[in-house]
């Protein structure tokens, strides 16, 4: 399942992020890559322990917690502290699969979902598409600044070469309460249907209540909390 979350950050927030990140120190992005990924990765990154990265990451985490679409799609148990990268002309990230386990200090995260939060407008750069491969082929993703894309961390994906301008983004991983992408897809679709019907028929409508009960019982069956 590939899910777009629109307007996670407002234009004013994006502008503030860009201003603060412009003054940050940037290092070779291979510092967070595994052995295989490091061979394919060419970008710049703000160090994970940099004060700006931590402060801006907290803003993102707060926005995620307030966003019902993110919560519905990810069913998050843990969210890895967001990181920030930049691709300039000639930079790219070849095809790879994200590490199954990530460490933030002493805490381990199982990476069920990968996330990219775009901080550059599509017209500000050429190339730089996030390309995710699934059973239906390749999907090229290039979203407006402030929009987020969620996709299975188990998928093969890459960032195409930037040929003009620069692509700025935040990225992170999510450990979901529900490991299976198929089960999360089913739950997300069911939750969206319940919210839509509840808005039209009322939350107390008998079929809506029955559907909500089915949703929560499926969560009980599949979730690890």
Descriptive labels:
2 domains; 225 residues; alpha+beta; 5-stranded antiparallel β-sheet; single chain; 6 helices; DNA Excision Repair, Uvrb, Chain A; Jelly Rolls; 9-stranded antiparallel β-sheet; 16 strands
Could you describe the 3D structure shown?
The protein has 225 residues and is an alpha+beta fold. It has two domains: 3-176, q2cbj1_9rhob like domain (Jelly Rolls, Sandwich); 181-222, DNA Excision Repair, Uvrb, Chain A (Irregular). The chain has six helices and 16 strands. The strands form three sheets. Strands 1, 2, 4, 5, 6, 10, 11, 14 and 16 form a nine-stranded antiparallel sheet that branches. A five-stranded antiparallel sheet has the order 3-7-15-12-13. The protein starts with a strand and ends with a helix.
Task: Please write out the topology.
Layout: E1 3-5, H1 11-22, E2 27-28, H2 35-38, E3 41-42, E4 44-45, H3 51-66, H4 68-74, E5 76-79, E6 83-88, E7 92-96, E8 101-104, E9 107-110, E10 113-118, E11 125-126, E12 130-134, E13 137-141, E14 148-152, E15 156-159, E16 164-176, H5 181-201, H6 206-222
Antiparallel strand pairs: 1-14, 2-4, 3-7, 4-6, 5-16, 6-16, 7-15, 8-9, 10-14, 10-16, 11-16, 12-13, 12-15
Helix pairs in contact: 5-6
